[in-house]
Amino acid sequence: MTLQEAFENIKDERIDRCKKHNLIDILMLMFMGVLCGYKSIEQIQFYATLSEQTLKKYLKLENGIPSSDTILRVLARIDAKQLEKYS
Q1: Which of 64, 38, 42 has the alpha carbon at shortest distance from 53?
Q2: Residues in Cβ contact with 31 at an 8 Å cutoff, skipping those fewer than 6 apart
């Protein structure tokens, strides 16, 4: 199972009309940012913004890079037990 396939199994608790960014894109941005050594949401968001063209080769990012506030709101809604299944 790939990482993206595992992330597809995580339930997205957001209201449909509020889903501007794909959950998988946000989770993959977080994973890649942490893997690159970034330690805050703001650093990860900045990295993603600078690397947007490269990231679009692998992620949908239909509405660009989400803001750090959006990333935080999305992560706050994810049940940590869902993520623990894949650790």
Answers
A1: 64
A2: 3
Q: What is the pTM of this model?
A: 0.91
For residues 63 and 60, what is the distance between their CA atoms, to the nearest angstrom?
Answer: 9
- Taking CA atoms, 17 is separated from 13, 20, 23, in Å, by 12, 8, 14
Identify which of 25, 43, 22 has the alpha carbon closest to the alpha carbon of residue 34: 43
Q: At 37, phi and psi to the nearest 5?
A: 100, 5
Each residue of 47-73: pLDDT tens digit? 999 999 999 999 999 999 999 999 999
* Structural domain boundaries in the chain: 3-84
